[in-house]
Amino acid sequence: MDSMRERFIGITSALLDEDPRLAVVLADVSAAGFREAAARHPDRLINVGIREQLLIGATAGLALTGLRPVAHTFASFLVERPFEQVKLDLGHQGVGAVLVSAAGSYDWPAGGRTHMAPGDVALLDTLPDWTVHVPGHPDEAERLLRHAVADGDRKVYVRLSEHRNEHAVDVEAGRFAVVRRGSRGTVVAVGPMLDAVLAATGNLDVTVLYAATVRPFDGAALRAATELVADVVLVEPYLAGTSANEAHEALADRPHRVLALGVPRAEHRQYGSVPEHLTAYGLDAHGLRGRIGAFLG
After folding, report:
1. Contact present, 166 and 195 (Cβ < 8 Å)
2. pLDDT at residue 272 in the model
3. 92, 85 in Cβ contact below 8 A?
4. Given phi > 0 = left and psi -120 to 50 = alpha, else beta, which region is 275?
5. For the chain, which terminal residue's Cβ has fewer other Cβ atoms within 10 angstroms, N or C?
6. Quick one: which of 200, 211, 213 has its CA closest to 173?
7. Is pLDDT of 55 > 80?
8. DSSP secondary structure letters along 139-152
9. Torsion angle in degrees (nearest 10) through CA of 131, 237, 273, 25
């Protein structure tokens, strides 16, 4: 099975052949995978090198000419390092693009803190009108990527990760999927956290919602799931609490409780492996089982 990043390279290379409006801007990351596409479309596949601010600036420039640009690199270099350009060149100028990241929160621990970006979605939340997709499987990544490219001129962030679920969900952009129904509470599993959530809640009478799109936040689905008991657990693969305000706003007119689980603000300096990070953050099935069970009583 290919990874989300491999699927992105293949699909985007094919879309370059099909859509003359599409352009791709790289900052060295994944350039080898796009070598054949670059030979076919040298005018619409641009590698600016390790210059991430230029990556976003060039992307915005292409958008101003009427193209639909896709910018790609690791999350820490796509959102955090060039954040001013994301804010001004795209947002302030009122142009759209598709930003596709790789490496998630801690996919390459050996790369150190420079290559970790658990705060990327929270940072984008400070800007208006971004759509954010967090697929949990390569099939979902393909579907959401195709939707993002075709989504007019909107600003879209597609967050790819090596961390993934075993099976894909039939996702619809902008909608939460109901994976399991229960009566004692609702757990919202975001992207690659679904498998761990299902394992952790297997003996609990809870509804499990699956979110592969987190912005816009599907408040209607959350309200429908919490009509009887408005106890909500958010399980996100990035900074804990990123979607807590969205959940509170969706349930503002009814008594409710929200437990937000995700990557803590405190740094873990022993970089380890992805499973070790999940265990350290209490985001493996064992850690989630104890925390969700205690919250729901």
Report:
1. yes
2. 85
3. no
4. alpha
5. C
6. 213
7. yes
8. HHHHHHHHHHHTST
9. 0
